[in-house]
Each structure stands twice: as structure tokens, then as C-alpha cells.
């Protein structure tokens, strides 16, 4: 019988989307073993690429105009399958949409994400999966909630968008929240388990990559603390939720989702469920997963380890492809990866690996096929 291989990678950031990675690996496998049965399953960890993974699993795209991270209109999309909508923060208020600096770190808002969620609810979604990686904002989800009907007030009236503006917040009114939220099931899909505040919180850990210097980090953390304090009169659990794992994800959008009653789940598990991954593993002889950089961070909720865990439950071996790897063989095996195949194994020049990732991936996949 011909071997059956499931190819379930994440993107190679800066080079190839998850769909493109899967296609290149499949081409390399078939080039070496024409009879091989390959099932391509692009995956994501809840961040950039989550909607793409849902579309690859058979969902349909819905296009909408929403507010970008700095207030500009952006054309974006989400995915719908039946009564389930999959929304991706990176596609509407993502860090890749701006040139980050101290000013953008203070002003960026999650408002557009709330607008997309509202659109999905208005069009019949009963379950909304919110993939929240890759955010530009550090506003605790305040912009998202405002777009969903919350009113945030200060001494001079309504508080503007952005994390810094929360320092003037004195009152929150949640009475006008979108009526369909009461019956909807929100799923917070993320690979981040930070709390909202403090040295392990949203501003301190992720603010610097969004352009925040130490002073800006302190100001944003103080603003988030003001946000929590203003919520306590209307949500007595506000402070407890700020300490929950995932509250600090995506600049605190995780906190906003938890305030709305969202279920927090590892992003890769959510995406694998959407793709029907367990069913697609039936009869497989091998799983090929991967991402651009395989390192210590990969061991904490990233796609390759999530895929390896799912395959292990079926007793199917897993190998990984990547641009580069800093994991030794023992760490890789402990993570459920039988072997790791990096582009740098065949091309030491990293710049060339980025520029020619597709062709190099096909060569790696041919090596894997030869060993089947």
C-alpha cells in the first residue's frame, strides 16, 4: 500500500503562508514518491493565519471594512462555517499593519476586532472563535468592548481609543453591549498565558515589541490598572479575571474576551478541531508539521508541538520541517518530534533560506519521502 502522510504546518513567517508550506512539502513528497497519499492541513496557533486555516478547512470568507489599529479603515475578512465564525485580530488590528514606535504603542486600539465580531454576530454566528495573536494594541480589549456597545467615560466625556487614553477612565457602562453576546459562545484562541498586569503582564512583556520604551510600558500598565479598577463597580470579578491565564494576551484583548465570558483554549487545539484533524489522521503513516523557527518558544503552545500531541494520541510518528532549529535532538523528541529537518541543513545562508524557502522545502520533503 502507498504511504499516507498528513502535512500540517504553520507559516514560515516572512517567507511562506501555512498553505504554501503545506503545498511545497506535498510537492516534494510526491516528487520522490509519486504514489504517496498526501493530505494538506494548514494550521495556525491562534495568531496570524488562523482565518486562512479555517478557509482551508472548508469555511467561507466574509469580507468587511473595519477600523485599523490607528483608526484608519481597513479591508479584512473572517471565516464562517455554519453558525461558527473565525475572527483573526492580526487581520484587522495587527502589528504588521503599522511601523511601531512609542506613539503607536500608546494610541493603537483593538476597536476593529470588536467591529468584526459584531458583524459576525449580526449575521447569525452562534460561536465566535477569536484568534488574537499579532496585535498592535495594548488597551486591555477596551476598544473591542467599545465597538461591541460598552461606554467608557472620563472627566471630559467619552474616552478615545488607545491604551494610553485609559488613564483618564473613570466609569464603564456595559448596559449597551451587543444583545447577541448573551447567547453566543466566544472562544479565546491563544498561545499566551500571561496575566494582564505587572512584570509578566501585557505591557511589560509585549509592549517593547510594539514600540514601547520603559516609560511607555509603565504608563500603559498603569492605564490597564485603571481599566480594571473602573470595571470593578460593574463587574466584581474584574480583578480576578485580570489575573487569569491569557488575560494579557494580545495587549489585554484576552482580558476583554474573558470579561465577555469567553472560553480560553490553546490556539492550535482550536484550529485542529476546526480542521477535523483527528478524523484526517485516520490511516496516516506519518505527520509532517513545522514552522519558520523551531526553538524553545515552540515548546509553549506553538503549532508543531500541538500537532505532535494530537498525532501521538493516534500513535502516528511526527517529523518537523523548519527554516532553522535551535532544539537539540533530545528536546525535539521530548516534544514528540521524531526528527527535525531545517532549511539551514541544506543551505547555511539564512537570507537565501528566506528568499528560496519553497524550493528548499521541496528538497527537504524529498529526503523525508525517501525514508518512508
UniProtKB/TrEMBL annotation:
Keywords: Kinase, Transferase
The keyword Cytoplasm is annotated on this UniProt entry: no
InterPro entries listed in its UniProt record: Glyc_kinase_flavodox-like_fold, Glycerate_kinase, Glycerate_kinase_RE-like, Glycerate_kinase_sf
Superkingdom per UniProt: Bacteria
MF terms (GO), sorted A to Z: kinase activity
Family the entry assigns: Belongs to the glycerate kinase type-1 family.
Name of the protein in question: Glycerate kinase
Species of the source: Georgenia halophila
Amino acid at each position: 500500500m502507498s504511504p499516507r502522510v498528513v502535512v500540517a504546518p504553520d507559516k514560515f513567517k516572512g517567507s511562506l503562508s501555512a498553505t504554501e508550506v503545506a503545498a511545497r512539502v506535498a510537492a516534494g513528497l510526491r516528487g520522490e514518491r509519486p504514489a504517496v497519499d498526501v493530505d494538506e492541513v494548514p494550521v495556525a496557533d491562534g495568531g496570524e493565519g488562523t482565518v486562512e486555516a479555517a478557509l482551508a478547512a472548508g469555511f467561507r470568507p466574509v469580507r468587511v471594512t473595519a477600523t485599523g489599529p490607528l483608526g484608519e479603515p481597513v479591508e479584512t475578512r473572517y471565516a464562517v462555517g455554519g453558525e461558527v465564525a473565525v475572527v483573526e485580530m492580526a487581520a484587522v488590528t495587527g502589528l504588521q499593519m503599522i511601523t511601531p514606535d512609542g506613539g503607536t504603542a500608546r494610541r493603537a486600539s483593538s476597536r476593529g476586532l470588536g467591529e468584526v465580531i459584531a458583524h459576525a454576530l449580526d449575521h447569525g454566528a452562534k460561536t465566535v472563535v477569536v484568534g488574537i495573536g499579532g496585535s498592535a494594541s495594548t488597551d486591555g480589549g477596551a476598544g473591542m468592548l467599545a465597538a461591541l456597545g460598552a461606554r467608557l467615560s472620563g472627566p471630559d466625556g467619552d474616552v478615545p481609543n488607545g491604551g494610553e487614553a485609559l488613564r483618564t477612565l473613570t466609569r464603564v457602562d456595559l448596559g449597551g453591549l451587543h444583545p447577541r453576546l448573551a447567547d453566543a459562545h466566544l472562544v479565546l484562541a491563544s498561545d499566551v498565558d500571561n496575566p494582564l498586569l505587572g512584570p509578566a503582564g501585557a505591557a511589560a512583556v509585549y509592549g517593547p515589541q510594539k514600540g514601547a520604551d520603559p516609560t511607555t510600558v509603565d504608563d500603559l500598565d498603569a492605564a490597564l490598572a485603571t481599566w480594571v479598577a473602573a470595571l470593578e463597580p460593574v463587574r466584581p470579578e474584574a480583578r480576578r479575571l485580570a489575573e487569569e491565564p491569557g488575560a494579557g494576551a494580545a495587549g489585554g484583548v484576552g482580558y476583554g474576551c474573558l470579561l465577555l465570558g469567553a472560553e480560553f483554549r490553546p490556539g492550535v487545539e482550536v484550529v485542529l478541531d476546526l480542521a477535523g484533524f483527528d478524523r484526517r489522521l485516520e490511516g496516516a503513516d506519518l505527520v509532517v508539521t513545522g514552522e519558520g523557527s523551531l526553538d524553545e518558544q515552540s515548546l509553549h503552545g506553538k503549532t508543531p508541538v500541538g500537532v505532535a500531541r494530537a498525532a501521538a494520541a493516534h500513535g502516528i510518528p511526527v517529523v518537523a520541517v523548519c527554516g532553522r532549529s535551535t532544539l537539540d535532538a533530545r528536546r525535539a523528541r521530548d516534544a514528540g518530534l521524531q526528527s527535525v529537518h531545517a532549511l539551514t541543513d541544506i543551505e547555511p545562508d539564512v537570507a537565501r533560506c528566506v528568499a528560496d524557502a519553497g524550493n528548499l522545502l521541496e528538497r527537504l520533503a524529498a529526503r523525508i519521502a525517501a525514508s518512508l
